[in-house]
Structure formats: structure tokens, C-alpha cells
Recover the amino acids of this structure.
């Protein structure tokens, strides 16, 4: 991905009218598979569809606080594998996006604590997500799958979420450590509606989760 000419830190995300799929249409924390996942994201809407395209957020501090005690006990000192291949369902989607020609199927993965501590507030955060978290270290795959499934259901409960409706020139900033998000793709061609959407995005580098 390449940034804008005068502001290389800004990546313009263009979704064409005839796009078949859309990035981000599942709960995730951006690049959680990196050694230092993004700390915060700033997203500004340049052009938005007349309907749809809301972004949902879920609070992972609350998700940890309200998680079933038995599950908490099983995972509190464990790590999980986050893999970039979790995003394979949206590889090769954004045809208009500059710098996206080279397909990258290499896997990046890292292990992170399932419960991380927010470096600024000291709060505990449930740091796994449906898109990228593949396995709990030190558990067999079956048990890991079962527990992760329960966690993924829990962290998407509506009472943990809010929903952001875009207007033109809106700016949304989120702490990518303590929320997961879900870009609702209800406005594009694959759903019978063909609208272009243009967003400018800045990702701020974070630290290694502890
Ligand atoms: Fe995202």
C-alpha cells in the first residue's frame, strides 16, 4: 500500500462501484498479527454511499470484564496466534487501490497475550479477534477452537458495541488495542448496490502487546 504524494502517511482507500467484496467485513483489530499492531486508526470519509457503510465497534475492556469466569480462568495467562492469512477472504479485493497490484500471500504471524494490559490506562483488554486469531497456545486445536468460538460470540454481543454512521468529511479515531471493529458492507455491488466509497486512513504504530 502506498500513501498520498504530499502526505505519504495517509492511505486513500478507494472502493469501486463494482467491487465484489469489502475489507473489514468481520470483527477484527487491524493487523493484530503484527509484532507491533497498530495503536490507533484515524479514518476520514471523503466520499460515502447514500446508504449503508456503517462501522461497528466493540469494547474489549468490557468484553474482558463480562467474560464467563470459567473461560477467564482458562485463558488469562495464555497466548494466541494471530495470522495475516485470516484475512485471505479479502485478498485481491481493492482493484483501484494504488500499490495493491502485487498479491501478497505470505503469512505473517505473531503470538500475543490473550489478555493484554493497556499501556496507558492499565486496563485489561481481551485481545483476540475472529478474523486473525487462529489458536490458543498450549491447548489442543479442538479445545482452542471451542473456547475461541465462545469468546468470539461473547465479544460481538450488541451490548458491547456501538455503531458509527458516516457523513461526508467525518473523522473517526479509535484505539485499535481496546476495540475491535466491523465494517458493514451493505452498500456494494455484491449486495445489489453499487456505490463508490473513498476514505483516507492513517495508522499509528503501536507497541508489542504485554
Ligand atoms: Fe479494519
Amino acid at each position: 500500500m502506498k500513501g498520498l504524494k504530499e502526505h505519504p502517511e495517509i492511505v486513500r482507500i478507494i472502493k469501486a462501484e463494482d467491487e465484489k467484496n469489502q475489507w473489514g467485513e468481520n470483527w477484527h483489530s487491524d493487523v493484530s498479527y503484527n509484532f507491533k499492531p497498530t495503536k490507533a486508526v484515524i479514518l476520514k470519509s471523503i466520499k460515502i454511499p447514500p446508504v449503508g457503510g456503517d462501522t461497528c465497534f466493540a469494547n474489549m475492556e468490557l468484553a474482558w470484564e463480562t467474560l464467563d469466569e470459567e473461560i477467564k480462568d482458562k485463558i488469562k495467562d495464555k497466548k494466541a496466534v494471530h495470522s495475516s492469512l485470516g484475512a485471505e477472504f479479502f485478498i485481491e479485493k481493492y482493484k483501484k487501490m494504488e500499490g495493491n497490484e502485487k498479491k501478497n500471500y505470505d503469512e505473517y504471524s505473531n503470538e500475543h497475550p490473550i489478555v493484554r494490559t493497556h499501556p496507558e490506562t492499565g486496563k485489561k483488554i481481551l485481545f483476540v479477534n475472529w478474523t486473525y486469531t487462529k489458536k490458543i497456545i498450549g491447548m489442543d486445536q479442538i479445545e482452542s477452537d471451542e473456547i475461541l468460538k465462545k469468546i468470539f460470540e461473547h465479544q460481538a454481543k450488541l451490548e458491547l458495541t456501538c455503531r458509527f454512521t458516516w457523513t461526508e468529511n467525518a473523522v473517526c479515531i479509535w484505539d485499535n488495542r481496546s476495540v475491535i471493529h466491523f465494517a458493514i458492507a451493505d452498500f456494494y455491488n455484491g449486495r445489489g448496490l453499487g456505490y463508490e466509497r473513498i476514505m483516507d486512513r492513517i495508522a499509528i504504530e503501536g507497541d508489542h502487546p504485554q
